[in-house]
Design goal:
The structure is a single chain. This protein has 292 residues and is an alpha/beta fold. The chain has two domains: 82 residues, Chemotaxis receptor methyltransferase CheR, N-terminal domain (Chemotaxis Receptor Methyltransferase Cher, domain 1, Orthogonal Bundle); 190 residues, Rossmann fold. Helices cover 40% and strands 18% of the residues. It contains ten helices and ten strands. The strands form two sheets. Strands 6-2-1-7-8-10-9 form a seven-stranded mixed sheet. Strands 3-5-4 form a three-stranded antiparallel sheet. A hairpin with a 5-residue loop joins β4 and β5.
Length: 292
C-alpha cells in the first residue's frame, strides 16, 4: 500500500496522539532494519498502543515529533526503548517442555559426562527475554548433575532488550512465575525472599553461576568465538521475513558444533533450501556431521 494520500489519514482515528500512515511506515522501517521484525499495516494499532506509552512518558504530543526524535542523535536512548517496546517478551519456565525432555534424555548425559572429565559444555539461549528459558535449561542440567556449576558448563543468555536482561540478571520471580517448576526443583534451587500471594523467589547461587546474560541483536555481529553444543532460539524467527530467517539459520550452523542441537519454536520451521540441519525431534534439529 502506498504512502501518498493514504499517509495523511490517521492510522488510529480515535487516539490521543496524531498518528499517520507516514509515521507508521517510518517506525516499521526502523524496526525492520534494527531488529528484523516485520510490521505489516495490520499491526498499526499494536504500534500505536505500545508507543503511545512512550510518548506519554517523555512528554511528546504527536508521533511525528516522536519519529523526529528517534532518528536524531539526541534520541539514541529512546530509539533503543522503541525497539524494546516493539519486541514481544512472552516466556515462562519450561515453556514447550518437550525440548527440555529431549535435552535431558538425549543430549545432556553425554555432554555432562564429558564435562566431568574436563571438557566444556556451551549452550546458547538466543532471545532469552527475562531469563526463564535459560534458567530452565540450567535446572535441567542441575537435575542430572547437581555439581555442574563447579564444572566448565555455561549457558549464554542473550536478548535485544536490556530491561529483560536486567530482570534475568536479578533472578527474581513472582510466585505465579515459578508455579510450573516442579516443587522439588523449586525448593532446592530457588530461595523465597517475600512471602504471601505477592511472594518472590530468587535463583540460588548454583543456578545463577551457570547463566551469563549479554545484550545481543541477532542481526548484528556475534562476538562469541567458540561453538555451542546446543542453541535454543524459539519463537523469535516468526517475527522475521524469510530472508532474515534464512540468514540467521545459516549463521547458527556456523556457531554450532558438528552434531549440535538447535531447538526452535512450535510454529517455526527451517525452510531454507539445502540447509545443513536434520529434524530429529519435535522442532528439534541437529547440525549434520559429528555425533549422532
Amino acid at each position: 500500500m502506498g504512502t501518498g494520500a493514504h499517509s495523511r489519514e490517521l492510522a488510529v482515528s480515535d487516539g490521543e496522539f496524531p498518528f499517520t500512515w507516514s509515521d507508521f511506515h517510518q517506525i516499521a522501517q526502523l524496526v525492520h532494519s534494527e531488529a528484523g521484525i516485520v510490521l505489516t499495516e495490520t499491526k498499526a494499532n499494536l504500534v500505536y498502543s505500545r508507543l503511545a506509552k512512550r510518548l506519554r512518558t517523555i512528554g511528546l504530543r504527536s508521533f511525528r515529533d516522536y519519529c523526529a526524535l528517534i532518528v536524531g542523535v539526541e534520541g539514541a536512548d529512546e530509539h533503543q526503548a522503541m525497539i524494546a517496546a516493539m519486541t514481544t517478551n512472552v516466556t515462562r519456565f519450561f515453556r514447550e517442555s518437550h525440548h527440555f525432555d529431549y535435552l535431558k534424555k538425549r543430549v545432556l548425559p553425554s555432554l555432562l559426562e564429558a564435562a566431568r572429565k574436563g571438557g566444556k559444555v556451551r549452550i546458547w539461549s538466543a532471545g532469552t527475554s527475562s531469563g526463564e528459558e535459560a534458567y530452565s535449561i540450567a535446572l535441567t542440567i542441575l537435575d542430572i548433575m547437581p555439581e555442574a556449576a563447579g564444572l566448565n558448563v555455561r549457558i549464554l543468555a542473550t536478548d535485544i532488550d536490556p530491561e529483560m536482561l536486567r530482570r534475568g540478571k536479578a533472578g527474581l520471580y513472582q510466585i505465579h512465575q515459578v508455579a510450573e517448576i516442579p516443587a522439588e526443583q523449586r525448593k532446592r534451587w530457588f530461595h523465597p525472599v517475600m512471602q504471601g500471594e505477592d511472594g518472590e523467589f530468587e535463583v540460588a547461587p548454583a543456578l545463577r553461576t551457570l547463566v551469563r546474560f549479554k545484550e545481543l541483536n541477532l542481526l548484528y555481529e556475534w562476538p562469541m568465538s567458540g561453538r555451542f553444543d546446543v542453541i535454543f532460539c524459539r519463537n523469535v524467527m516468526i517475527y522475521f521475513d524469510d530472508d532474515t530467517q534464512n540468514e540467521v539459520w545459516s549463521r547458527f550452523s556456523g556457531v554450532l558444533q558438528p552434531g549440535g542441537i538447535l531447538c526452535i519454536g512450535h510454529s517455526e520451521r527451517i525452510s531454507m533450501a539445502n540447509h545443513p540441519f536434520e529434524l530429529v525431534g519435535q522442532t528439534v534439529y541437529r547440525l549434520r556431521g559429528g555425533r549422532s
